[in-house]
Each structure stands twice: as structure tokens, then as C-alpha cells.
Design brief:
alpha/beta
Amino acid sequence: MKNVLVLCTGNSCRSQMAHGYLNSYQDSLAKIYSAGIETHGLNPGAVAIMKEDGIDISHHTSNHVDEYEGIEWDYIITVCDHAKENCPFIPAKNAERIHHNFSDPSKVKGTEQEIHEAFFKTREEIKEFCYEFIKEELTN
């Protein structure tokens, strides 16, 4: 079984959504972890937008990348530029590092509708990315 780490700044929103989709798209191909270079707690907007798509991430926790020291990673996926640029060194001999910067919907200010649209847009981008990742990387 492969070990996949999804890394973001605060492990509260984008990495949590990716964690949810990666788990939902595969049954037993990989163990999915998500972490941040900081911990900001689980974002309620991320929980709500995932629930709209039938995925419950409310039981997830916000974890620091150091909590996973010693795991042999097959993939390390960074989902924001800040995490990619500021991540501490993660020793992983054979890990494939993949980066995709998704916009941070938690930073959007505006009406409830505008904020919802930002979460929806980011969720849909992450959903597509995760589907393609599973199809191209884990099922070959």
C-alpha cells in the first residue's frame, strides 16, 4: 500500500478537501495523510462544502507535518505555494513530489454567496485533481 501526504499551510481547508477526495476515490490503494506546516484547525467552510458533495471530513484533525516523521512517503502533494516554499525538509528517498496551487477560499471576503462560490470553485478543482491523481498514479 502506498503512503500519500497532502501538505498545505494550516491543514485546515485545501489539504483536508484533498484528503477527503483521495480517500473516497480509492479503496485500498493508499493510506492518505494530510498535514500542515502549521495547524489552524478544521475549517467549517471546508467541512460544509465537502458535505454538500457527500463526503464527511468532520472527523478529520489538523495535523502538523512533524507528527508523521518516520513514514516512508510514496507521494508528497503540496496544494499551496506557501507550503511548497516553506515546508521543512521531509526525508523521503523515493517520494514523488507533486505540486498544484489551489486558491484559498478561506481568504475570500464578501457575501455569504461569494464565499460559498469560492469554496465550491476550489472544491471542484481539488476534486478533479484528486480523481486524475488516483487514475494516473495509483491505478497503473
